Every structure is written in structure tokens, then in C-alpha cells.
């Protein structure tokens, strides 16, 4: 027990070791996607770490998340909804790396006619950081390299009326939250 506690303490203190651990999980996720897709909590933990870690460790988390993204393409409906909620939360984070990975997940995990992911890409297209903005615009225009475009994706767009309705609903939610926090 003492050795286990000491090992945990070292892991928490040594950012280089944590970075290596993050990358290792990403590699495992890429080789054995079924190990990750059972529980979205792993991705949520990594997105949280992306906002909490600093420097090279943050880059390791970002790399790991990028490696894992393909594992989440064929999620069941419940996990898709959880992933949507996670990405909608993360696109508003302060850290540009979190927003960039969110845009990459919106593009990779969901088909091009998926309304919430298109909304995320629209938010990313207005981002203050150039790399987030450029990635989002590329995704919306479908000019990504072939590694980002799914082979079965035929550039299908979401229904216009449904998309506009979704955007208006989200904007009303934002306005309502702003009003509630000011009162």
C-alpha cells in the first residue's frame, strides 16, 4: 500500500510522467477503440485535463485526444448525446487547445448532416484564435485533407430549417443564461 501511494504521488507531481501516461492512453485508444467507447468519462477526463494541465503536459493531452478521436465515430445514441453535451460545453472553454480539439471531434465523430456538430463548427468559425477558426472553416467547407473526411460522408448538409431552429434555440438559451446571471 505504501508503494502504491508513493507511485500515485510521483505521478501527480511529475508532469513529464503524466504526459507520457496521457499519450499511452491515446495510443491504446487508437489500437483498441472498444476499450474507450464504453464510457465517455475517459474523454471527459482528458478534456478536463486539457484545461488544467500546463505546457508540455497540455500538449500531450491534446495529442492523446487527437489519437483517440476515431474511436468515437460509431457511438451508440446515449454516448452520442453525452459526446454532444461534452463538446458543446468545451467549445466555450478559455483554453484554445480545448476549443481546437472540440472542433476536431465535431468533425471526426459526427456525420456532416449532424446539426449540433455543425453548430459547434459555426462557433469555432468565429473563434478569436486563428487555428481554431481555420480548422472550423475548413470543416464547414469540406476542404480538409482526406484523413479528416470520412469515406462514407458525401458532403450531406443538415436540413436548413432544422439548423436555423437549432441555432435560434441555442442563442435563446445563451440569452436566457445571461439574463439570469445578471439578475
UniProtKB/TrEMBL annotation:
GO biological process, one term: proteasome assembly
Keywords: Repeat
Cellular-component GO terms for this entry: cytoplasm; nucleus
GO molecular function: molecular adaptor activity
UniProt xrefs under InterPro entries: ARM-type_fold, Ecm29_N
Residue intervals of the Proteasome component Ecm29 N-terminal domain: 13-124
Protein name: Proteasome component Ecm29 N-terminal domain-containing protein
Species, as recorded: Arion vulgaris
Gene (name only): ORF55344
